[in-house]
Input
Amino acid sequence: MTNSFKAACVMKALVTAYVITGILLVILAFGVYKLELTESTVNLCIIFIYVIASFIGAFSLGKMIKEKKFLWGALLGIVYIAIIIVVSAIAEGNFSLAGSEFISAFLLCFGGGTLGGMLS
Output
């Protein structure tokens, strides 16, 4: 497999993960509107959405690449959460990496991606 093929597979898997993220966040927004969920519940749901999306993206990446799937899944989880963190930092206007939310989201997406790659 060529490097350009692998890069294209990673991009496809990232797009898959972000589409799933978008769909699940819309469902969560509807739930917030209808069920009046608390902020802590919403934050927990957002982390859960990140983990599910990184798992599914890594699972699809593992199916495409078919070698060292857990490493590719881990890479996808890292890139997925890194992009979210950078976009969030740009949108908020500050860039703080010291928060416990960052560390937990990073580790969970890393784990979700690794697991998704392993199970593909």
About this structure: The chain has one domain: 3-119. Helices lie at 3-35, 39-65, 69-92, 100-119. DSSP finds four helices and no strands in the chain. Residues 3-119 form one domain.
